[in-house]
Amino acid sequence: MFKILVADDEKFIRKGIVSILSGNLREEVEFVEARNGLEALEKSRTETPGLIITDISMPGCDGLEFIQRLKEINVNVPVIILSGYENFEYAKKAIKLGVKEYVMKPIKKTEFVELIHSYITDIRQARQRSREEYLKRSENTRIMEKLKRDFLLGLLKCTSSEEARNYLIQLEELGMRFDSHLYMCVAVQYKVTPANQEYIDFVVKNILDEFWGLRLDDEKAVNVVYGSGMVVAIFEGDSQTALLEQKKKLVREALSLLKQYCKTEVYAGIGDIAFDSIQLHVSLRHAMLAANYKIFEEGTGVCAYQDLEKGKEPDALELVKRMKPIEDINIFDMLDRFRKLAYSGKTRRVLKVLEQEYEEVQNHINLVMARKQAGKTVWDEKYKSFSCIWSVGEAGQELKERIELLKELCDGSGNVNEALMRQMLDFVDEHITEELDLNTVAEKFNRTSGYVSTLFKKYTSGGFSAYLTGERIKIARKLLEDSSIPIQEIGELCGYNNPKYFSVVFKKVTGETPRGYREKLISR
Description:
Blueprint: E1 2-7, H1 11-24, E2 29-34, H2 37-47, E3 51-55, H3 63-72, E4 79-83, H4 88-96, E5 101-104, H5 109-157, H6 161-173, E6 182-190, H7 200-215, E7 221-227, E8 230-237, H8 240-262, E9 266-274, H9 280-291, E10 301-304, H10 331-342, H11 348-372, H12 392-411, H13 415-430, H14 438-444, H15 449-459, H16 464-480, H17 487-493, H18 499-510, H19 514-523
Parallel strand pairs: 1-2, 1-3, 3-4, 4-5, 9-10
Antiparallel strand pairs: 6-8, 6-9, 7-8
């Protein structure tokens, strides 16, 4: 609502102005009154008025002094001065201070109301223009940032010199130049959980942007979210030693900061030096391979590609070949081979084969199920990519559960999973009023969240979230029949601590707000 501050030491004049304006203005306005200049100054700070009407002569701090002090505290509000006598010097000072109008008392009611109306209209139009300009700038900034990200990702992924040059030209047009002699990519990875997935990528990138900015002086680093759970940093420099050794120390400091503020596991892989920005994809590939070394270590760490032993070429596991026919899959044998390879040596070649075998198995499972489940929505094609795996055991568990689910859905036998599903449904029903998510259920039954998600999609009509919401709303409907229970308390009893969110969810499911639903019950 538009606010007008009226400052005058004479009460009947102050009240008269408020009465005239409130009774005749077409706009809805809130009035704030001040009895002197000092009080007006304080209320200008606390009430943030859109327009100030002040008497020129007041005790303690007159109108001109009041306006001068407004400027000193950066309160930029249009001011209209009221004066009981003509004084050319006062008028000159007022104009110099930026006063918009110098109105003589007694006030001519009609002219005064029209004057204030015109100011309110102008101020509101100016605010609207300002909002529109801000939104336009924000949208332009958003589009620019998206273009930068798209071009950076293109540059990092492309292997063609001509394609890379095109990306460099496009980035330069957006104000991002790559003109150093040496480059290095760092893949910063972090655990994404149901609790942090909505914000973690944004937060990690912002922390890294600020940290590099504070620590790199004249050197440059560019960060880009490569995918959920990974930010890639591109460092530039003129010295190989500075890039490799100094940046390794800097990356360790950054990871400590990320772990402290993001409360999650973090790991970084440092790629080799690229002697041309066109070769960034090679440095990135090496950085991502080095980051996968985290499956051999626990906790926060940094691994440089150049520090990894190359090692002997391991025998291919050919796990996909061992998945044909599906009914004869020996899961224990497959996982045993995978683990033996993982523990045969912590080398580049072992890491490369592990990732290749893992991804091939996952893609094969998706391919088989896409054929088997054509036209159905039971199969959840998403799986954890190898870069999101944080231990050999986790990789084995992920493969085991996906292969088990594949076998069950292909041969139609579901006795084991049906029993597990009943247990999970009982657990959800028992803890329906508590904070509950897919990850909680998965941890309780020692399964991955992807596995639990697929089971819920198979055995319930809409998956885990739909089931949980549906059961909570059933309870809410029953409780709303008792008018003695406050609606906020009902939300809490159903697992929604935020009453606004409870209302939104309830309306989404039922088409009515909780209050509207209760009133409808009472009126019957």
